Structures are given as structure tokens and as C-alpha cells.
């Protein structure tokens, strides 16, 4: 530690806690550059001192940040400032709406200065200290964050750390020939090394921005640009870059940002001869950033954007003792969910959930159905291999289905970065349009509309049943449809992600209380589900979770247990009515209808519907008056569990999880074939049917 530095006791204590590890890691990655390290520590101190008292107070309250993100009442929404309300001030005026939507965590999509025609949706930042002028100012950001905190809402903001815009000051100076600034990026005199890199590095935007390097005419050099040519990769091997970028991050925290989304974090370290993704140094840097936030603004949480294959995602949590990100996007579950919509076969999703259930409960996933990006088909193809499903053909099938080019598909998506070379297209569209609501409204087909809305709500119910933080994409709460206007905007036309980045339709939101409308049906049901979720302990992140065997590959069945409460979630991904042949013998209450059931056996579920069943093992309150208000009543509408509590068995009785593995009664198996038999049957099915006659769930297998 630097000699004779007198820090405030609070800062000193926080620094002491991490000092050895911090110095060790920093010196390891920056080759004992003590000057850089001392600068880094001083910088942390500067930001600690600059942090305003209100935020320090918020830090104190949020020191239990981990608890905050374990909470079943946490609900997020992600939104673009311009699309949602025009400006930051506009968002402030709409906080009431967000609260009414149950949201207590707002993710503001990138809003820092970015060149209009070369912004990648704000992900090409030209000034990390300045808000895009038409959205407002840094003061507006701080003011909005204060207003959110007053309402108990947390604010998330992107920290686009892998690259800067080519208009960023560092890039301008690099372009003008200043070596010091060229060293902050990856500059090469000729194409020799770039070509060498290209042998190992895949492409992010193969169609819209092929290649990982761009010729810079002014500098007469080649510069690394993993994403768009106007996004220049920062060289984190240079400690100046890391120090200054960490300072930029802390500056956002000091403007009241609570959750920092580490954009494209797997890409931040490059080594020739590797694929330049997920390298060990990335983990070291994230761990250092975690400690930096712990020292300066301990209420801050790091959310890693790690859109990678499943095995690469979890390591970004670090270890329980040495955490890296507090939260990670549950990208694999999201993609597997849409695979399941298209195949109506839950086996992959079930396998995926089993993987997630095995992780330590301290790990918090951010769950979502749709975000601002495309859906990439990063599925567990090794698992799918056993069903003879091949990656390229399967991606084509999924894209065909979800763009509506398939029999019995009402989805209305568009392809994204269709790379014919790899057959690797990804997919865009809003939840509602992918669920068929757009097609149903267009065709004015009420039955189809009912079914599509059911699918939309079932997917949201599944989202809310998962452990972690559910985040809704703005507009999804009223079932907003695709926005095709981007096709007419030359700046956006090439990027189909704008299909689902339309403006918030406030006229449609007006209909949210009218349950005869699509908007009202979705909004009100979501609210009800969120309230139920928030009122039942079994939905907490700490709950035990397990998969139940429904002997039906169309139904995903899972259980949650915590503090004497048990919830079963059954999700029917088929467009036909199905039965979940589960075998749970406690009494249950249907959380949606309030109906009582003597057991949970042979539960029938309508096409695309779901069931939430609740059982409490808690002792019944002696007398109604003595029962504490919060005791057993989930949500107002689902008051049934409160009544049911009176019949609850003894307190300590544990749920019979093993029962999940029990076989259903013979009578039932006769009606519906158990999984194993069905698999063979599916394989044997004649492959000769015309494509139009093949059901999607079969086609996915046959296509392979
Ligand atoms: C992230 C963003 C995406 C952006 C990319 C480059 O993946 O989610 O929208 O294009 O980073 O910054």
C-alpha cells in the first residue's frame, strides 16, 4: 500500500478488505506496473470522495445488494429512452406507469453520446461523460436516478467497454497519428497480423459488418473492429485504458446508476492465435472491477452480458468467495425457450433447466424472453444430437418456423445477419409477434388471438417461475407488435433488430385496464402473476427447484420449495390440450383460478396454457384474527391459498420431491405414451409426409 496515505476509515476499511488480491491481480495482468496500480487506487479514492452522501446512504441500504437480487419482488424492464419517453425527463414523468407495471428495476438502454448515423443503437459511445444531447444531460440522468431511488427503483445502464466510437476523442487522436492514442486501440501497419487474427476469430456481424478489422485511411493503418467498422476495440492490455475506463464506469455509478451492464464483456481481451473470446484475462479484469465497485460504491451490481454457449457463461459469476459478475443474462434458457416454442418439445429446455438448478443459489440470473438484440441459436447441440438434430439444419428450421414460413406457425419474425456460408441466421421480433398475436389480429381471427395471447402469457409465466430476476422488454407488458417502419429508415434498414425496438405505443397503453383488449388482457394478467410471485416465498431465488416428470414431452413441469411453501409450474408448449401425468399427492390451490384440488395428478392444460399450483406446509393459523397479515395470502386475486392454509398439514413436513420420479398410474400411461416409448414412435414415423403435413415437433427431428 502506498506509504503515508491517510484515507477515510470507511474507504481504508474497504480497501484493506481487497488490497492484497487487488494488487496481486493488477500486477499480474499489468506486469508489476506499480505506477499504474497506484494511479488506479488513487482514482478509486477520488470517486469515493466524489460520491454524494445520498448515494452513500443508498449504498448502505443496498449493501445487502445480494439480498436485493434474490428477492421475488424484483421485476425489471428494459427500455430505450427515446422510444419510451423521448428524453430522460420524459422517463421521469412516466415513473408512475413503470410502478403501475410492477417495475422496480429500470434498465435504460445506451444513452451516452454516440454519432447518430453510426451508433449501433447507442453501443458506439463517443463520450462516456456526456448524455446524447437530445435525450438530456448527465444532470438529468442523476436526477432521474434520484427519482427512481425515491420510489425504491434501481437503475441499470450499459457500460460499453469493449470499444469506443470512431468519433471518441481517443480515436480521433489515434487517427491523427498520435502514437499514445493508437496504443489504446489495436493498430497495425499492414494486414499481416490482422489476417493472422482472422484465422481464429469468428465474426459477430457477418453480413452487416464482415471481418474484424477496418482500414483507417487517415492513419494509413488497420484497426481492430470486432463489431461495426465504426466501433474500435479498446486495448485492455494497456493499463491506461483499464484505469480510464474503470473511472468512466465509476462516474456512471456516481450519477446514481446501480447496476452496470458490462456490454460484450467476453471480448475485452485479445490474444493472437485464439478466438479472442472469454480469455482468462477477461475474468481477472472483471474481478478487479468488482472489487473497485465494492470499494467505491458497494451498492453497485455488475451484470455481465455474456452471450456465449452455456459452458462459457457460468464462469463469469467467478466463485462464491471471489465473485466477478453479480448477475448474468440467462441467454441459454431464453434461446432454448424459443426453440421449444418452435418445436413444441420441451426436452432441451428441461435439460437446460436441470443445468441451471444445479448452480449455487448465490448465482443470480437475469431472465428474459426478449431484449433489444436478436435471438442467437446458441443451443446445446451436443444434447440435441441424441435426437439426430443437426445444428445448421435445425437453425434453419427454427428460423423458418419463427418467421412464419412453416405450416401451423403464426410467428412473425425476421432474420438477422443471415450468413449463408454458415447457415447461421439469427432472429428478431417482439414477443407478441413471435407468439402469433400480430397474425391473429391481422387475420381478425379471435380463436387464434386467444391462443396466441395464451402462449405469450404462458411464456411470461415460465419467465416468472424461474429463479433470478425477470426483466420484461418495454412494450411486452401490453403485447406490442413488430415495428416495420425501420425498413424505411436508411440508417436502420440493414439492422433488423429495429423490428423490435419500436416506439412505446402510449395510445395502446391507455387500453391496459380494459380486459376486452389484447393490451388489457396481457397487462392485467402479467400484473396478477407478478403479484402472486412477489407474495409467495417459494418464488424466491433461494428456493429449491426441481424438474417433475409429466410423461409428456410438450409439458415442462417444475417445482419450487421454500420456507414451507411449494409451487408447481406446468407449461404446455403444444398447440393442443395436453395432460401432465405428474403424481403429487398434497392438496393444491390453483393460483390463477383459486380452485382447490385434492392432489396434483393428471393435470390437464389447455393448448399453450400453464398452471401454477400452490401447497403450503405451514401450520394453519390458530384463529383468523391472530394470523399475521402477510402469513399466507399470496395476491389479492389468488386469495385461495389463504383459505387453503387452514387445511395445511404439520409444519415440518417436507415436500415429497422424490414423488416427481414416480410413475403415473397405468391407466394414464395407456392414454398417453410415456416419454421413452414416444421417442421411438417419433423416430419410426414415416418421413414421407409432405412438409405441410408434418407437425413442427416432428419436423424438427425429421429435418435433422
Ligand atoms: C452488445 C449489445 C449489442 C451491440 C454489441 C456491440 O452485444 O447488446 O446491441 O451491438 O454489444 O456493442
Question: What features would you describe in this structure?
Answer:
The chain is an alpha/beta fold. The strands form seven sheets. It has an eight-stranded parallel beta barrel with strand order 1-2-5-11-12-13-14-17. The chain has a six-stranded antiparallel β-sheet with strand order 18-19-20-25-22-23. Helix 15 (331-343) runs antiparallel to helix 16, helix 15 (331-343) packs across helix 18 (391-402) and helix 20 runs antiparallel to helix 21 (446-465). It is globular and about 75 Å long. Mean pLDDT is 89; it is low at 625-704. Residues 120-121, 123, 160, 227, 263-264, 305, 372-373 line the site of alpha-D-glucopyranose.
List keywords for this structure.
704 residues, alpha/beta, 27 helices, disordered C terminus, binds alpha-D-glucopyranose
Amino acid at each position: 500500500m502506498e506509504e503515508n496515505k491517510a484515507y477515510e476509515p470507511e474507504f481504508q476499511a474497504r480497501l484493506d478488505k481487497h488490497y492484497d488480491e487487488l494488487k496481486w491481480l493488477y500486477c499480474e495482468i499489468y506486469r508489476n506496473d506499480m505506477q499504474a496500480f497506484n494511479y488506479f487506487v488513487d482514482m478509486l479514492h477520488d470517486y469515493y470522495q466524489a460520491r454524494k452522501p445520498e448515494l452513500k446512504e443508498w449504498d448502505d441500504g443496498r449493501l445487502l445488494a445480494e439480498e436485493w437480487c434474490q428477492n421475488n419482488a424484483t421485476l425489471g424492464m428494459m427500455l430505450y429512452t427515446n422510444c419510451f419517453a423521448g428524453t430522460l425527463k420524459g422517463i421521469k414523468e412516466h415513473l408512475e406507469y413503470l410502478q403501475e407495471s410492477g417495475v422496480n428495476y429500470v434498465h435504460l438502454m445506451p444513452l451516452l453520446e454516440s454519432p447518430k448515423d453510426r451508433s449501433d443503437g447507442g453501443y458506439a459511445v463517443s463520450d462516456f461523460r456526456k448524455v446524447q444531447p437530445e435525450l438530456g444531460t448527465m444532470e438529468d440522468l442523476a436526477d432521474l436516478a434520484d427519482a427512481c431511488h425515491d420510489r425504491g427503483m434501481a437503475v441499470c445502464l450499459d457500460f460499453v467497454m469493449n470499444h469506443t466510437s470512431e468519433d471518441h476523442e481517443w480515436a480521433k487522436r489515434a487517427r491523427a497519428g498520435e502514437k499514445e492514442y493508437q496504443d489504446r486501440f489495436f493498430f497495425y501497419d499492414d494486414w499481416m497480423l490482422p489476417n493472422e487474427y482472422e484465422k481464429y476469430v469468428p465474426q459477430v456481424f457477418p453480413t452487416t459488418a464482415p471481418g474484424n478489422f477496418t482500414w483507417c485511411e487517415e492513419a494509413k493503418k488497420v484497426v481492430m473492429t470486432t463489431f461495426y467498422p465504426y466501433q474500435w476495440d479498446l486495448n485492455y492490455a494497456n493499463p491506461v485504458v483499464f484505469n480510464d475506463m474503470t473511472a468512466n464506469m465509476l462516474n456512471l455509478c456516481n450519477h446514481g446508476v446501480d447496476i452496470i451492464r458490462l456490454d460484450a464483456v467476453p471480448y475485452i481481451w485479445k490474444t493472437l492465435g485464439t478466438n479472442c473470446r472469454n480469455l482468462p484475462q477477461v475474468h481477472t479484469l472483471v474481478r478487479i472491477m468488482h472489487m473497485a465497485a465494492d470499494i467505491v460504491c458497494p451498492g453497485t451490481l455488475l451484470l455481465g452480458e455474456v452471450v456465449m454457449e452455456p459452458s462459457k457463461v457460468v464462469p463469469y459469476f467467478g466463485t462464491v468467495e471471489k465473485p466477478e459478475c453479480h448477475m448474468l443474462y440467462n441467454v441459454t434458457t431464453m434461446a432454448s425457450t424459443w426453440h421449444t416454442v418452435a418445436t413444441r418439445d420441451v426436452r432441451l429446455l428441461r435439460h437446460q433447466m436441470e443445468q441451471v438448478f444445479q448452480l449455487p443459489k448465490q448465482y443470480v440470473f437475469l431472465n428474459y424472453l426478449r431484449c433489444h438484440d436478436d435471438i442467437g441459436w446458441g443451443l446445446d447441440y451436443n444434447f440435441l444430437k441424441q435426437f439426430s438434430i443437426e445444428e445448421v439444419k435445425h437453425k434453419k428450421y427454427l428460423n423458418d418456423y419463427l418467421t412464419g414460413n412453416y405450416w401451423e406457425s403464426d410467428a412473425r419474425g425476421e432474420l438477422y445477419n443471415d450468413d449463408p456460408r454458415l447457415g447461421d441466421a439469427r432472429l428478431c421480433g417482439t414477443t407478441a409477434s413471435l407468439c402469433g398475436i400480430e397474425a391473429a389480429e391481422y387475420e381478425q381471427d379471435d380463436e387464434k388471438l386467444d391462443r396466441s395471447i395464451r402462449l405469450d402469457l404462458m411464456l411470461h409465466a415460465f419467465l416468472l417461475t424461474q429463479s433470478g430476476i425477470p426483466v420484461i422488454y418495454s412494450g411486452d407488458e401490453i403485447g406490442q407488435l413488430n415495428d416495420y417502419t425501420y425498413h424505411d429508415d436508411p440508417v436502420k434498414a440493414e439492422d433488423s433488430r429495429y423490428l423490435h425496438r419500436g416506439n412505446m405505443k402510449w395510445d395502446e397503453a391507455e387500453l391496459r385496464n380494459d380486459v376486452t383488449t389484447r393490451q388489457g388482457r396481457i397487462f392485467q394478467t402479467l400484473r396478477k402473476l407478478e403479484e402472486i410471485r412477489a407474495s409467495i416465498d417459494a418464488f424466491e431465488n433461494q428456493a429449491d427447484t426441481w424438474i417433475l416428470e409429466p410423461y409428456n414431452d410438450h409439458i415442462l413441469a417444475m417445482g419450487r420449495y421454500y420456507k414451507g411453501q411449494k409451487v408447481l409450474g406446468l407449461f404446455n408448449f403444444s398447440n393442443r390440450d395436453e395432460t401432465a401425468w405428474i403424481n403429487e399427492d398434497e392438496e393444491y390451490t390453483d393460483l390463477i383460478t383459486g380452485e382447490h384440488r385434492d392432489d396434483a395428478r393428471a393435470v390437464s392444460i389447455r393448448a399453450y396454457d400453464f398452471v401454477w399450483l400452490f401447497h403450503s406446509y405451514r401450520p394453519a393459523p390458530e384463529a383468523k384474527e391472530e394470523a399475521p397479515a402477510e402469513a399466507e395470502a399470496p395476491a389479492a386475486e389468488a386469495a385461495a391459498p389463504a383459505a387453503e392454509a387452514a387445511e395445511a398439514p404439520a409444519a415440518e413436513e417436507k415436500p415429497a420431491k422424490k414423488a416427481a420420479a414416480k410413475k403415473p398410474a397405468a391407466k394414464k400411461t395407456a392414454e398417453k405414451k410415456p416419454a421413452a416409448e414416444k421417442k421411438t414412435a417419433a423416430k419410426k414415423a414415416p418421413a414421407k409426409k409432405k412438409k405441410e403435413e408434418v407437425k413442427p415437433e416432428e419436423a424438427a427431428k425429421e429435418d435433422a
